[in-house]
Amino acid sequence: MSHLMNTYARLPVAFTHGEGVWLFDETGKRYLDALSGIAVSTLGHNHPRLVRAISEQAASVLHTSNLYRIPRQEELGDRIAALSGMDEVFFCNSGCEANEAAIKLARFYGHKKHIDHPEIIVMENAFHGRTLATLSATGNRKTQAGFEPLVTGFVRVPYKDISAIRAVGEHNHNVVAVMLEMVQGEGGINIADDDFQRELRAICDERGWLLICDEVQCGIGRTGPWFGFQQSGIKPDIMTLAKGLGSGVPIGACVTAGRAAGLFGPGNHGSTFGGNPLACAAGLATIAEIEDKALRDNAVRVGEAIRNGMREALAGVSGVVDIRGRGLMIGIELDRPCGDLVRQALEAGLLINVTADRVIRLLPALVFTEQDAGALVSALAPLVRKFLGQ
Ligand code: PMP
To answer: What residues bind N(2)-acetyl-L-ornithine, as annotated (predicted)?
Structure first.
C-alpha cells in the first residue's frame, strides 16, 4: 500500500531519465513529451546548460537565507525587471505562492487607499492555485467543493467580458484589482485578445485598480512574447510567474510596477526558500538559453506547425470543435469529454493532457522542433480520429 496521500489520479508509469523532448520509463520505452510537466520543463529534459548551472550553484552556495543578500536573486530580479519593464520582484517557490503574494499586495494597496474590505475581480474558469486564497480566486466550483468557507473578497465575471467588469466597477467601490490569465491554461486554453487586454488596462487606469496578470502557465516565452500581456503592448501592475521560470527547479515570483511597487516593507511578507541561489541559478540559465537560442521565435513557429498539422490531419473529422492556441500553448477542443485519450496516448508513447473535460492540452518544451511537431501530429491525430470513431 502506498503511503502517499491520494491527491492525484496518477498514470501507471514512472520515468527514469529524459533527453530533450523525450522521457524514458523503467522498461526503456520512450515517450514524446508534449506536456513538459505542465509547462514546466522549458528547456526540455537533461539540458546541459541547466544541469551545469544548478550543479555549479549547488557546489558553491546552495541555500543561505533571506536574512542576507543573495546575489543570484538580485541578478534574476534584474533580468525579470528588464524583460518585463517592471520594477520589483518577490521570489517564492510556486505559482500559488506567487499569487498569494499578489492577492496580499492588492489588499495592502486597498487598505492604503482606506478601502477596508478590498475586493478583487476574478474570472470564470480561472486557475490560480490550491491554497485557500488562490483556490477562492480560482473559477472552478469542482475544485473548490468541500473547502468552504472560501476566502471572501473576490467578485467573479465571465472571462473577457469587459461590460461585466465595467458593471462591477459602477456599483462596487471596494474593488482594488482585476486578476486574470492572458491565456487560461487549466480553463481550456482560452485567449484574451489584444483589444480586450488594452480595454482592461484602460478600465484599471480609470478606476485606480491594479491589473494582476497570472503568467504562471503562459509566461516565460511560451506564447511568443516573454509574457502574455506583451502581445498587446500593455503592462500590468503585478504579474506572477512560476512553472517554466526554473525549467523544473521550483521557483515563483511576484513582480510589481508603478503604484504596486514599493508597497511592502520588511515584515510584510516572506518565504524561507524563496529565491534561493539554486532556484535563481536555474531561472537565470533558463532565460539566458531562451534568449541565446531564440526559443520564443521557435515557440511561435513550432506552435503554428502543430496547429496547422493537426488542422490538416483532422480536416473533415466531426467532433473537433476548435484547434487554438498561442505559441506552444495549444488546445484541441472536442465536442465530448476526452479524458480517456490521455491513457491511450501514453500507451502510444505520447504525453498529453486533457483539461476542462473536453480540451486536449499541449504544452511542449520551447526546444520542440518542427520535426518533433511532425512526430506529435502523426501520433496524436490518429488517436483523436479513432476516439471520435472516424
Ligand atoms: N496559476 C496558473 C495559471 C496555473 O496554471 C497554476 C498551476 N496549474 C497555478 C497558478 C498554481 O501553480 P502551482 O501549482 O505552482 O502552485
So the answer is: 130, 271
| CA 303 to centroid of ligand 1, rounded, Å | 22
How far apart are alpha carbons 296 and 223 in whole angstroms? Answer: 8
Q: Is 90 touching ligand 1 by the criterion CB < 6 Å?
A: no
Is 216 annotated in a binding site? The answer is yes
96 lines ligand 1 (CB under 6 A): yes
Task: Report, as an integer, the average pLDDT of 311-332.
Answer: 98
Question: What gap in Å lies between CA 141 and CA 373, rounded to an integer?
Answer: 35
Band (138; pLDDT cuts 50, 70, 90): very high
Complex ipTM tops 0.85: yes
Q: How far apart are alpha carbons 304 and 176 in whole angstroms? A: 37
**Binding residue per annotation — 21?**
no
CATH number for the region 49-292 comes to 3.40.640.10
Share of the chain above pLDDT 70, in %: 100
- Give CATH 3.40.640.10 domain extents, the chain: 49-292
Looking at residue 1, what is its pLDDT?
77
d(CA 378, CA 380): 6
The CATH 3.90.1150.10 domain(s) of the chain lie at: 15-33+295-387
pLDDT at 262: 96
Cβ 226 under 6 angstroms from ligand 1 = no
Residue nearest to atom 14 of ligand 1 (CA): 95
Confidence of residue 287 (pLDDT cuts 50, 70, 90): very high
Q: Indicate which residue's Cα is closest to atom 5 of ligand 1.
A: 217
Would you say the CB of residue 95 lies under 6 angstroms from ligand 1? yes
- Is there an atom of ligand 1 within 6 Å of 127 CB? yes
The CATH number corresponding to 15-33+295-387 among 3.50.50.60, 3.90.1150.10, 3.40.50.970, 3.40.50.150 equals 3.90.1150.10
Nearest to 251 by CA among 130, 364, 90: 90
346 contacts 35 by C-beta, under 8 angstroms: no
Ligand 1 in reach of 100 Cβ (< 6 A): no
The pTM of the whole model exceeds 0.80: yes
Does 214 appear as a known binding residue? yes
User: If we measure between CA atoms, which residue out of 357, 366, 384 comes closest to residue 187?
Assistant: 357
